[in-house]
Amino acid sequence: MAMASLARRKAYLLTRNISTAPLRSSFSLSRGFASSGSDENDVVIIGGGPGGYVAAIKAAQLGLKTTCIEKRGALGGTCLNVGCIPSKALLHSSHMYHEAKHVFANHGVKVSSVEVDLPAMLAQKDTAVKNLTRGIEGLFKKNKVNYVKGYGKFLSPSEVSVETTDGETTVVKGKHIIVATGSDVKSLPGITIDEKKIVSSTGALSLSEIPKKLIVIGAGYIGLEMGSVWGRLGSEVTVVEFAADIVPSMDGEIRKQFQRSLEKQKMKFMLKTKVVGVDSSGDGVKLIVEPAEGGDQTTLEADVVLVSAGRSPFTSGLDLDKIGVETDKVGRILVNERFSTNVSGVYAIGDVIPGPMLAHKAEEDGVACVEFIAGKHGHVDYDKVPGVVYTYPEVASVGKTEEQLKKDGVSYRVGKFPFMANSRAKAIDTAEGLVKILADKETDKILGVHIMSPNAGELIHEAVLAINYDAASEDIARVCHAHPTMSEAIKEAAMATYDKPIHM
């Protein structure tokens, strides 16, 4: 099996004109590690987020002397500290509260009273974050990665000056330096985030009380997730979005069903709406909006406004211009297929380069980058990176949307299967949503898969694997799926794509 897998990988690389010959490395692989970040390293990583810490561990596993520099003083980056992990903790906790209050009785479980203990809920979230950050530090020690806490900036292509968290300055030297500094909240003109009444996603994770009215600016992944958290806990949530649709990158058919689901949860939407002013001088916040194409202005009032208009690459203060690293007009670092910048020995991964701003994409970048540095082969296909919105129901996707295929002029077939026809979903009373598969009309090769359901983020990986191995819908349809499971909906959708489903 291993030999066959290696052969498939080499064939895959050849189809993309990537050489399978061993790469020449500028150093020998060894297990000697520096006792100090100021000694010369094989690899130095600036940033200890998902891309950076994974790159550091992988580099060390490949025998490279490695140092990771992280300004936060806690590993895991935005994702672990103030992003993916704490938000999922609150999404889960708030969902449990909502289920207890509104759903338990349907299953014969009667609860006399259900109350929110917000401090305890936030404490559980903080405990999860603390344990996971400590876990990464443990992995660093296990793999002998040198960890420097501080803010790093370039002195030269092989030297990084670090202002450490204890007030000292040190210089970390490396033959290969990887920039993995992630991204930061994108600000909006005229709106000052104070993390009290006008908050970013960071502030929305730690509100001291449940707001009666919450306005979310931006109908993307983060805004809808955080809106869901506070909506379940009792907030009246209004989402203001400049575009005509929520989550514009989502498949159109799925998006419409998703929006209807959120509206049933009492989330309100103001689409094609522009924010033109904000006043936070009083007890609450007044938001002045108008139609995106112009028109009469309206004033909205809220206790808290969440600004969730996207993220920007975080490269300020690195002194990239000092060593001549090229960036694009929005500040992303330009790299080639090996993650090399235009400056020899300097690389970049994750949110600071073009591609999806996702933690798991950054992790794959990190592994591939250090594999190239070590003289091996790395590969990430951004067209096959899954995306998940962790609301309830969740929405997960991989590959092309139907709109993209139409735009590209690709002939395709569509197979769909609703969870209303899935026995497991009906048995546990969570039958909202569907699976949608898009496949090439002639070859049956799967081009895109979109799932809306509870735990869609877990179900999607069967499709991710299929797409990465260029599987046909018939391949999935002919694989035996356990019964009763939610996963059977994927099999049925695959059957509907190339032939006909059984249970519909």
What is the fold's blueprint, element by element?
Blueprint: H1 2-15, E1 40-46, H2 50-61, E2 66-70, H3 77-82, H4 84-102, H5 118-143, E3 146-156, E4 159-164, E5 169-179, E6 183-185, E7 198-199, H6 201-204, E8 213-217, H7 221-232, E9 236-240, H8 252-264, E10 268-270, E11 273-279, E12 285-291, E13 298-302, E14 304-307, E15 311-313, H9 320-323, E16 346-348, H10 359-373, E17 387-389, E18 394-399, H11 402-408, E19 412-418, H12 423-427, E20 434-440, E21 446-453, H13 456-468, H14 473-477, H15 488-498
Parallel strand pairs: 1-2, 1-5, 2-3, 5-16, 7-14, 8-9, 8-14, 9-10
Antiparallel strand pairs: 3-4, 4-5, 6-15, 11-12, 12-13, 17-18, 18-21, 19-20, 20-21
Helix pairs in contact: 2-5, 2-10, 4-5, 4-7
Radius of gyration in whole Å, from Cα? 24 Å
DSSP summary, beta strand count: 21
Beta-strand percentage? 15-25%
Low-pLDDT sequence parts: 1-9, 12-38
User: Which architecture of the largest domain does the CATH hierarchy give at level 2?
Assistant: 3-Layer(bba) Sandwich
The largest beta-sheet arranges its strands as 1-2-3-4-5
* Fraction of residues in H or I helices: 25-40%
Most strands sheet: 5 strands, mixed, barrel
Principal-axes geometry comes out as: globular
CATH superfamily of the largest domain: FAD/NAD(P)-binding domain
CATH topology of the largest domain: FAD/NAD(P)-binding domain
- Average pLDDT works out at 93
Distance between the termini: 37 Å
Count of helical regions = 15
CATH class of the largest domain: Alpha Beta
Count of the domains: 3
